[in-house]
Amino acid sequence: MLSDKYELKQPLRLPDQVAAILMEELESGTLKPGEMLPPEMELATKFGVSRAVIREALSQLKAEGLLESQQGRGVMVVGRSGRRFFRLEDPEKFNSQSLTHLYELRAILESEAAAMAAARGSTRDVAKLGECVVAMARAVEDDTIGAVPDLDFHRGIAEASGNHHLCELMQFLNDKLLVLIQEAREHSRQNPGVPRQVQKEHEGIYRAIEARNPQKARKETLDHLRMAARRLGLEI
Amino acid sequence: MLSDKYELKQPLRLPDQVAAILMEELESGTLKPGEMLPPEMELATKFGVSRAVIREALSQLKAEGLLESQQGRGVMVVGRSGRRFFRLEDPEKFNSQSLTHLYELRAILESEAAAMAAARGSTRDVAKLGECVVAMARAVEDDTIGAVPDLDFHRGIAEASGNHHLCELMQFLNDKLLVLIQEAREHSRQNPGVPRQVQKEHEGIYRAIEARNPQKARKETLDHLRMAARRLGLEI
DNA sequence: GGAAAGCATGTTGTCAGACAAATATGAGTT
DNA sequence: AACTCATATTTGTCTGACAACATGCTTTCC
After folding, report:
1. Which CATH topology does B93-232 take?
2. What is the per-residue pLDDT across A60-106, written as a single tens digit (0 to 9) for each?
3. Can you give the distance from the CA of residue B72 to the C1' of nucleotide C10 in angstroms?
4. Which of A35, A140, A188, B138 is found 20 to 30 A from A6 (Cα to Cα)?
């Protein structure tokens, strides 16, 4: 039984609850870097759970790089520099402003990626982008869902930037915004004329990259995402 | 002292090994989203470990959002959109190109953050930046280490951007690049004249932000980071 | 015959205890 | 003061057990 001291929610599994509490103490500074955690057995009695539960919780935090354990010594709190992940707040807690910020971040990265793609993308990368544009054009004609080529197009720009970290990060953000993006696409298809407009924007980006014009590629991408955000109802 | 950090080449613990193998299978597509994992007991015999070890491994992957379990049903593979973290490859495996890319990513974000700070940073934020500049100037005069105000300055820019996600992401990247940055600072102090040059660049950024000139803030930051990269020996 | 209730089985969640392995600690010796 | 060694502490791993929940099948009742 977990003590009521820690307002634990029932539905979550015990290790997750314990991990959340410890994480809280880590972020609030109650547990400072370099300090040792109490022994697992002590934590177990303190939280009123078995050692197995404690170990699963610690395992999560260790995997994230927040803690470090050594057999015979104990568990130590490691500083921020040890963090292995960039964690986004839980999507359930996203409010409108948070979403706008996320979208803004994406726009920064994607416009810069487009500029880099124009500056130094391989001809192969650019050719792949061209295929995506053609596929999307066909989707607009047929009035079908152009989701796959659309996603491919945006991923292609990231890859053409030649920066692997940037690519991975954009992939992550896009995954997070996926629901939002799909909503936008659905919304677009219902408004006649919008798909054609979107296609024109995509083609503008593609032409700028193909023409090896970084400035233009950045601007076209920025404009495109600004328009897309407006279509989504986000104030940017 | 210093060897303490590098001495810890601890043999991987069993749960970490199992987690690594499963992660490999997830990324390679051997385990596809929607599929069910074998029961924990089966995995245990397959890997030749106890169920507790398997559970700790699964706990890590569940925390990362790669798996999802339900009592009585089993463990399911979740698609990419479920990922909760943006994971950077292990710092030990960083090669020169990878570092350059990481630095490039940081430059993108920081220059844009500076522009946003100029465009919409609160007067409070800007004032704090001014204090950092003064503190750094004093450090240059005294020839002491200006690490703290320097970090504060860069963090201040991120905060002044008003975008929380951007701020967190920059914090994460800076933590990762911290060793690199400290190296740069040490290198700077040994080369006479460099600290003054750095200070001049910082002041340039600050003046642009204070003057509410986004374009200039972006350019000054970009120039500063480009110079810093060159001082570090990275080809940008 | 069909639908609802109950039972059997499989799976995850949690607990308890045990031992091994590595480390810290302290007493005793040189 | 420094070294040695036995002891205690702590993490790493294993085993077995039971509870909670889900699924499918059987039984029962209309």
Report:
1. Four Helix Bundle (Hemerythrin (Met), subunit A) (1.20.120)
2. 999 999 999 999 999 999 988 788 889 887 666 667 788 889 889 99
3. 8
4. A35
